[in-house]
Design goal:
The structure holds two protein chains of two kinds.
Chain A lengths: L6 H17 L1 H21 L14 H31 L1 H6 L5 H29 L7 H28 L6 H14 L12 H9 L1 H14 L6 H25 L4
Helix pairs in contact in A: 1-5, 2-3, 2-5, 3-5, 3-6, 3-9, 5-6, 5-10, 6-9, 6-10, 9-10
Chain B lengths: L2 E12 L2 E12 L3 E5 L6 H8 L7 E6 L2 E2 L4 H7 E4 L11 H11 L4 H14 L15 H13 L5 E5 L7 H17 L3 E6 L2 H7 L2 E6 L2 E6 L1 H7 L3 E7 L4 H8 L4 E7 L2 E6 L2 H15 L3 E7 L3 H9 L3 H21 L1
Parallel strand pairs in B: 3-8, 3-9, 6-7, 7-8
Antiparallel strand pairs in B: 1-2, 1-4, 4-5, 9-10, 11-13, 11-14, 12-13
Helix pairs in contact in B: 4-5, 9-10
The chains are: A mainly alpha, B alpha/beta.
Chain lengths: 257, 331
């Protein structure tokens, strides 16, 4: 009987993700570039704009920084989950799937790897935003923001795995970029406050899990949030559990041809 | 002895295309079994079902007494597989690929090191072990995959076209190693191949598979015997039309084939027919420059059961692949 939780296998799946991540230096630079430009150009460009619903006394760059961290977490973790597709394309998925390791352990290892790489990128963006003059409320805020970062990443790695398990090849990848990642990002309130938006947009924002992620990060880092932090935490936790479950379930069912 | 593999009416249908069609085979423990057929015959699909990578459409299969659909985890524990298509992580080094594999199979540090060095020696990749696989040549990648598949000494080992694209010397090496594994370690081995000589040289029994069906199954020696003919090859220098017409009337000639100045005749008890053939040739005014008689090879067996040589099938499959690639690029 294969153990359901095989720590050695989880470790080696994680190790592989880390090695691949650190060897792809140009990819890291590429994925950090977009959030950096958002911070630098959007942050500066909208510096003097007053959004309706923007809490008084908050700079746009302070408001934007948690949103951009949410953005890189979303991009990085979904890409990590979807990397199952690249493994399928390059054949390595066969090697993984034929080993006597439970699918649950494989998925856990992949999520751990994805969360780690997303977290590194999220922290890098946090540091960059601090360097650009964004203010945070304190060290406890930073630590609690890490909890949110982990939940956001784990949930979206799970979603990525679920999507990748249902796809046969990489041809649908740009479809996902445009129809999954962009709406989730733009509706999350990463770029503008949710207060004072039309009802239909609010409704969409409320079903977007990243809304609670960005809101939680904002609560931790600048001390201002739309929802209660506990609400953010619980919604994200549920999202995370459900996504990891669905991802693991669909991955279990996947065939390799 | 118990059977290592029991296959019963196994079928796989892809979008209405029957890739494997009601295959039933029993393979004994310790057997070296070959699936011989052209590319696209269904060998790989069959192997992937046995290796739990594909779910059968219908029928059952047991590997090491475990059902592949009900107990896939137990089956995976007992098997090893070397895939036909690349299955390495190009961003890892050769050694890291092996290490990944060893850890996934739960080998401890000591054993991991020992096996790694053993298999790297075998495929002569020791000095390239710390190079990223993306810098390997095609042959090196293939060798690394073979090394990896052998690392955990499975009960049942599937080899999908193990020597595809290898140079003859490496191929010989691999053959000897496969033999040794089978005989000394008592590993049941199922290999697919479209190299006739590989099946002939290595396998205890061979199943010829075509369009997803088993068309013949026996020891290579018996298969050759079963078609019951010798091949007489006549080298002819001038026009043979008249001669061919005369031979066409003879009932004891089962098959006739002309190619590049040679005339191949399938005949029972070939030795006794040669004098008669010489007489006819003289009457027809044909100059026979040489005569050779040979016992049937597995190639002839294949021709007999499938109706084409394996190479003829090959080209048509290649065209199909090319066609598919073209479609892919245009999408």
């Amino acid at each position: 009987m294969a153990q359901l939780i095989n720590l050695e296998a989880i470790y080696v799946m994680w190790l592989r993700e880390m090695k691949r991540f650190f060897r792809a230096k140009s990819r890291i630079a590429g994925s950090l570039a977009m959030p950096f430009f958002f911070l630098a150009f959007l942050g500066t460009g909208f510096m003097n704009v007053r959004f309706s619903g923007m809490p008084p006394g908050v700079n746009y760059i302070d408001f934007l920084a948690p949103g951009v961290i949410g953005m890189i977490l979303l991009f990085a973790s979904l890409t990590a989950g979807i990397s199952v597709l690249w493994d399928r394309e390059f054949g390595f998925l066969k090697e993984i799937m034929v080993t006597p390791v439970s699918r649950v352990s494989i998925v856990l290892g992949r999520i751990l790897g994805g969360v780690s790489t997303a977290l590194i990128q999220g922290i890098l963006i946090l540091l960059i935003s601090l360097g650009m003059g964004s203010k945070i409320v304190g060290i406890f805020g930073v630590l609690s923001s890490l909890v949110f970062m982990v939940l956001i990443s784990a949930g979206f790695v799970g979603l990525g795995i679920a999507i990748a398990s249902r796809m046969k090849d990489i041809h649908g990848f740009s479809l996902i970029m445009n129809f999954v990642i962009m709406p989730i990002f733009l509706l999350s309130g990463a770029l503008f406050p949710l207060e004072g938006l039309p009802t239909w947009l609010i409704a969409l924002a409320y079903i977007d899990p990243l809304t609670y992620g960005v809101d939680g990060l904002r609560g931790c880092l600048i001390g201002i949030s739309h929802f209660n932090l506990l609400v953010d935490f619980l919604v994200l936790l549920c999202f995370c559990i459900v996504m990891v479950g669905i991802g693991a379930y669909l991955f279990e069912k996947t065939e390799v041809d | 002895m118990a059977d290592a593999i029991e296959i019963n009416g196994l079928t796989k249908v892809f979008d209405g295309l029957v890739a494997v069609d009601h295959v039933s085979i029993n393979i004994a423990e310790g057997e070296l079994f070959g699936l011989l057929g052209p590319n696209g015959a269904g060998k790989t699909t069959l192997i992937k079902m046995l290796a739990t990578l594909l779910m059968p459409t219908s029928g059952t299969a047991k590997v090491s007494r475990y059902d592949v659909t009900k107990d896939p985890d137990k089956v995976r524990r007992c098997i090893g597989i070397i895939f036909q298509d690349p299955s390495l992580d190009n961003r890892l080094t050769g050694k890291e690929n092996l290490d990944f594999h060893a850890r996934m199979y739960g080998m401890d540090g000591e054993l991991r090191k020992e096996r790694m060095s053993e298999v790297l020696d075998l495929v002569e990749l020791k000095d390239k072990a710390n190079v990223l696989v993306e810098n390997y040549s095609g042959g090196m990648k293939r060798r690394l995959e073979i090394a990896r598949g052998l690392m955990h000494h499975p009960e049942v080992l599937f080899l999908d076209e193990p020597t595809l694209g290898l140079d003859p010397q490496t191929r010989r090496h691999i053959w000897e190693y496969i033999r040794n594994l089978n005989k000394k370690e008592d590993i049941t081995i199922i290999l697919t191949t479209h190299y006739i000589e590989e099946a002939d040289y290595l396998c205890d029994r061979v199943a010829i598979i075509d369009y997803g069906k088993i068309v013949a199954l026996d020891a290579p020696k018996n298969l050759k015997y079963s078609i019951g003919v010798d091949i007489i090859s006549l080298e002819i220098s001038n026009s043979a039309d008249n001669f061919v017409a005369m031979l066409g009337k003879l009932k004891w000639i089962k098959k006739m084939k002309e190619h590049d100045g040679f005339l191949d005749l399938s005949v029972k008890n070939g030795e006794t027919r040669i004098p008669e053939l010489m007489n006819i040739a003289q009457k027809a005014g044909v100059v026979v420059q040489s005569v050779s008689l040979r016992k049937p090879t597995l190639e002839d067996v294949f021709l007999h059961y499938v109706g084409k040589t394996i190479r003829e099938e090959e080209t048509s499959v290649k065209d199909q692949v090319r066609e598919r690639m073209r479609r892919r690029w245009h999408n």
